[in-house]
Design brief:
The complex is a heterodimer of chains A (539) and B (221). Chain A is an all-alpha fold and 539 residues long. Chain A has a single domain, classed as Cytochrome c oxidase-like, subunit I domain (Cytochrome C Oxidase, Chain A), CATH 1.20.210. Chain A contains 17 helices and no strands. In chain A, helix 2 runs antiparallel to helix 4 and helix 5 packs antiparallel against helix 7. The two termini of chain A are 21 Å apart. With 221 residues, chain B is an all-alpha fold. Chain B is elongated, with a radius of gyration of 21 Å. Chain B starts with 21 loop residues before the first helix and ends with a helix. In chain B, 36% of the residues are buried. The N terminus of chain B is likely disordered. Classes of the chains: A mainly alpha (539), B mainly alpha (221).
């Protein structure tokens, strides 16, 4: 196994040992990534099932399928599952777990046992939430606004809150592990300016996870205490202030939006450079824009509270700071576009997802500027405009990047190729389905349809039917990769070590990698993305 | 951490498989612990932020509530906790210089101080129960400030309670470490567990150093 020359039936992390125990007690970051992949997929389809019910209800204006209380639970559980149990962990826990040590040239993350613990913590938190769902669900919205959540709601708030509290620690542990690993475990020659941009994105994400998540934890504890013991912190009758909850909640949950997009941006940088066969344009700017987004992200939470009795001066400042976030985001979009310019572009499935990401993220980001504008926000807040906006970022951005990244690294992870043409088709179906689902919602919101109601005036029906039709296309689009990924694990063509002729340490080891990641410890001698016209393709 | 001269060749069982050297392993543990303490600061930060907001809203009620805290017991507890920090620091020193018996003794002393602190805290809590000053259904306070004084006690119990939970965890970890030290599993080249727990213990002490004046002393005289 330490031999440089690999004998044909080579030992790798998947066949090093077998059995349930070898998976459930593994400290190998690659296996933990697969454990995460399995559990995240379950939650993704569960969250998706709630979305299906929501879109079915909204086919007709009458609100005839479920009652309003049930509808409240549906969108709450859709939000909670998708945000806390899919989007926040998605790319970091699966692709990040698999790739961070390999990209750095390390044998594992700095704290392998903590890494396994983070998966167990995630799973236990998930079980709490599942129990809450099965026993009747929760109806506060994923934001748990007080005093409704702390005093008036009659659903399983404490159980769900506990689930989110516990799961938060998996996020903290992952972030902490990534930060320490990046600082202490880089291979010889892997300087900070040679780090792949995927690493910079994960570094910035980890900073947010470590700094933000504990605030969410204490906020949730306070809500649970308030609910259980009536301690008064969010109860106006005792002098408590419900708006304080919003401040504490958004102090985490706005930066958390960047937890849910930065890793995606890291994936896109890798994919764009590889399939345009070009060095990324403006490496330093793309790298530091990730850190800039993470830092600025902590100073904009008040833009969620423009209509929550916040002082207009605070509103002005938060509005201005929110505009600032557009700068590093735009830096990324422009630099990706500049990377594409005169590149020799190949439209493999990961690249189609990356192209989709750039377009959809741009729309999502620009409509974010509308919402950061005080006067416009008064008009469109709590309408479908905001729903469309954040779905363009979360689904059009992060989920596209997640799928693109899964396709890009699937040969490395499993040692098998996925069926390329089918994957291209699925990517296009997802792109079309996504736009048909969510673009009408911009119009609905602008016309004044509020979010979180299960009935609506008849004039909105056409757009709602379009949205529901798009959702069914999107659903089919998500099922196709699920099926062929499973198929390819057994029947896919064996993957070479570097099927895309990509740069990066992960492509310098066999597919799948050995348990220790490399056959010989790597030494880095060049910058990331050394693609160039003079490159010679070798297999 | 300044003087540690282990090399790759020194193949110690203390070196985990994925590290190249004990230096790298130590640097990782150290950075990891500091980052963890950073998350703790943010965690307690939420409580401190809430405290600051309500103290600014209701200064009179917070002073009135503060007068119902036992400054003597709180003061004694502060001394006890500072003493435990001293014994913890001495334990770290003993671990680094390889004095096994002293290490065990100092760790045990730290545990005793920690338990003493929790005991005194329990006495204080029981007085609050007896005086109906625990927020919730049974809270009784005469006067127009009742609701806001209850808010003060919510913060009192929330903050000191969260602090006490950290003490309990620390004492548990100290127990495990004492056992390891007693069995001779720690050495000057592998003193990191003692050092890391030392950082944690000092952090928990520092939280109290902020809690004591904020809750007991401020505005009292």
């Amino acid at each position: 196994m330490h031999d440089a020359s690999v004998a044909p039936p080579h030992t790798h992390y998947l066949n090093a040992n077998y059995g349930v125990k070898s998976w459930l007690l593994t400290t190998d970051h690659k296996r933990i990534a697969l454990l995460y992949l399995a559990s995240l997929t379950l939650f993704f389809f569960l969250g998706g099932a709630f979305a299906v019910l929501i879109r079915l209800e909204l086919l007709t204006p009458q609100g005839d399928m479920v009652q309003s209380e049930t509808y409240n639970k549906l969108f709450t559980m859709h939000g909670i599952i998708m945000i806390f149990f899919f989007l926040v962990p998605s790319i970091p826990a699966v692709l990040g777990n698999f790739l961070v040590p390999i990209m750095l040239g390390a044998r594992d993350l700095a704290f392998p046992r903590l890494n396994l613990l983070s998966w167990y913590v995630y799973t236990i938190g998930g079980l709490f939430t599942l129990v809450a769902i099965v026993s009747g669900g929760v109806d506060t919205g994923w934001t748990f606004y007080t005093p409704y959540s702390s005093t008036y709601a009659n659903s399983h708030v404490i159980l769900t809150a506990l689930g989110i509290f516990i799961t938060g620690f998996s996020s903290i542990l992952t972030g902490l592990n990534f930060l320490v690993t990046t600082h202490t475990m880089r291979a010889p020659g892997m300087t900070w300016s040679r780090l792949p941009l995927f690493m910079w994105a994960h570094y910035a994400t980890s900073l947010i996870m470590v700094l933000g998540t504990p605030v969410l934890a204490i906020t949730i504890v306070l809500v649970a205490l308030e609910r259980a013991f009536r301690i008064g912190i969010f109860d106006p009758t005792l002098g408590g202030d419900p708006v304080l909850f919003q401040h504490l909640f958004w102090f985490y949950s706005h930066p958390a939006v960047y937890i849910m997009i930065l890793p995606g941006m890291g994936v896109i940088s890798e994919v764009i450079a590889c399939f345009a066969r070009k060095r990324i344009f403006g490496y330093d700017f793309v790298a530091f824009s990730s850190v800039a987004i993470a830092v600025l992200g902590f100073f904009v939470w008040g833009h969620h509270m423009f209509v929550s009795s916040q002082s207009p001066y605070a509103g002005l400042v938060f509005s201005f700071l929110s505009f600032l976030v557009a700068i590093p985001s735009a830096v990324k979009v422009f630099n990706w576009t500049a990377t594409l310019y005169r590149g020799s572009i190949a439209y493999n499935a990961p690249m189609i997802y990356a192209m989709g990401f750039i377009g959809l993220f741009t729309i999502g980001g620009l409509t974010g500027l509308f919402l950061a504008t005080l006067a416009v926000d008064i008009h469109v807040h709590d309408t479908y405009f905001i729903v469309a906006h954040f779905h363009y970022i979360m689904v059009g951005g992060m989920v596209m990047a997640y799928l693109g990244g899964l396709h890009f690294w699937w040969p490395k992870i499993t040692g098998r190729m996925y069926p390329e043409n089918l994957a291209r088709l699925a990517a296009i179906i997802i792109f079309i389905g996504f736009n048909l689902t969510f673009f009408p919602q911009f119009l609905l919101g602008y016309l004044g349809m509020p979010r979180r109601y299960h009935f609506y005036p008849e004039e909105f029906q056409v757009l709602n039917v379009m949205s529901s039709a798009g959702a069914s296309i999107l659903g089919v689009g998500y099922l196709i990769p699920m099926i062929y990924f499973l198929w390819s694990m057994r029947y896919g063509a064996p993957a070479p070590a570097n099927p895309w002729q990509a740069t990066g340490l992960e492509w310098n080891t066999s597919s799948p990698p050995p348990t220790a990641n490399f056959h010989t410890p790597p030494v880095v001698t060049e910058e990331a993305y050394a693609y160039g016209p003079q490159e010679v393709h070798v297999d | 951490m300044a003087h540690r001269r282990c090399t790759l060749t020194e193949h110690s069982s203390a070196l985990a498989h994925h590290f190249d050297s004990l230096e790298q392993q130590y640097a990782s543990a150290n950075l990891g612990m500091w980052l963890f303490l950073l998350t703790e600061i943010m965690f307690f930060g939420g409580l401190f932020a809430g405290y600051t907001v309500y103290r600014t809203f209701y200064p009179d009620a917070f002073i009135a509530g503060s007068h119902h805290l036992d400054i003597t017991l709180g003061g004694i507890n502060t001394v006890v906790l500072l003493a435990s920090s001293l014994t913890m620091a001495l334990a770290v020193h003993a671990a680094q210089s390889g004095q096994r018996q002293q290490l065990v003794n100092f760790l045990l002393l730290t545990i005793v101080c920690g338990l003493l602190f929790l005991g005194i805290k329990a006495v204080e809590y029981s007085h609050k129960f007896a005086d109906h000053l625990v927020p919730g259904k049974h809270f009784v306070f005469e006067g127009p400030l009742a609701g806001q004084v209850q808010l003060f006690f919510s913060f009192y119990f929330g903050m000191t309670g969260m602090h006490a939970v950290h003490m309990v965890i620390g004492i548990g970890l100290l127990g495990i470490l004492t056992l390891q030290a007693w069995r001779g599993q720690l050495s000057p080249t592998y003193a990191a567990p003692v050092e890391m727990l030392g950082l944690y213990w000092h952090f928990v002490d520092i939280v109290w150093i902020f809690l004591f004046p904020l809750l007991y002393l401020l505005g009292r005289h």
